[in-house]
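Throughout this chapter, every protein is written as a compact record of paired, labelled lines. An example of such a record is reproduced below:
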Amino acid sequence: MGVVQAAQCILQRITPRCPFDRMRRTLQNRILLTGPHLMPLTQYFRLMDNMARMALRADASRYFFGYLWWLLEPLLYVAVFYVVFDLILDSRRADFLVFLMCGKLAFIWFSKSVNQASSSIVANKGLIGRINITKTLFPLAVVQEGLYRQVAVFTLLIGFLVFSGYTASWAWFYLVPVLLVNYLMIVACALVGACLVCIVRDFNMFISLGMTFLLFTSGVFWDVRELGDPEKTEMVLALNPLAFMLDAYRQVLMHSTAPDWTHLLQIAAGSIVVLAIVAMLMRRFNQYLALRALS
C-alpha cells in the first residue's frame, strides 16, 4: 500500500474533530508517515508532486476558464502595469512591454509562491492534527504548484519574444541556471515564511507588505541599469537578490547576454544554506510546529 493510500486509511479511522488537549497528550503516539527512516526521498518528492497536482486540478475546477487562468492572471497583471506606466506615464521605452513581461512574470512567480507557501502549514492544520507528517511537505507542494504554472507562463513569454522579433539564440540556454537559482531562492524563502507564520500569524501581514516593497524596489517596471549612478546600480543588485534575478532574465532574453555568474552562484549558495538550515530546524522542531499550527 502506498503512502497516500495509507494516509487515507488512517484518516478514515480518526474522528474528524479531535480536541486540542487530547492532541497535545497523544502527540507522541501519532502515526508517523514521513521521515528519512520510513519514507525514501523519492517517495517524499512523489507525494509532494501528487499534492501539487491535486491542488492544481481542484483550483482549476472552481473557475469557468480553468487552467487558462495560469496564463490569464499574469497577463492581466502585465496589462495593468502597461496601461499605467507606458500609456499613462509614458515610459519612453519602445520595448517596454517585453521589458515589463520579463520582469513582472518572474516577480509573480516569486511573490505568489512565497505568499501562498507561507500560510500552507497553518492552512493544513486539520491534516496536521491527525497525522504526524513532516511540515516541509506543505510549503514545498505549494512551490511545486507555482513551478507547474510558471512552465506555461515562460513558454508563453518565449513565444511572445519570438513573435516580437527577438531572435532565439544559444544564449537563451543561460536561462536554465537562472531558473534553477530562482527556484532555490523561492524554496528557501517559502520555508522561512512557512515557519514564521506558523509560529506567529502576524508574519503573514509582514510578508505581504514585504512583497509590495520588493515590487517597487526590484526593477519590475523600471530598469536598474538606468539609475544614472553605477554605484547605486551595483548597490541595488548586491542588496536585493530579486532585483539581480529580474535583471538576469532581461539580460539573457532581451540582450542575449550571460548573467554575472559569480553573483548568481552567491545567491544559489546562500539559498542552499538557508534552505538546509530551515529544513533541519523544521525537522528538529516538528512537534512544536504542529502544536503552533493547531493553537
About this structure: The chain has 14 helices and no strands. Residues 31-294 form one domain. Residues 149 and 279 are 25 Å apart (CA to CA).
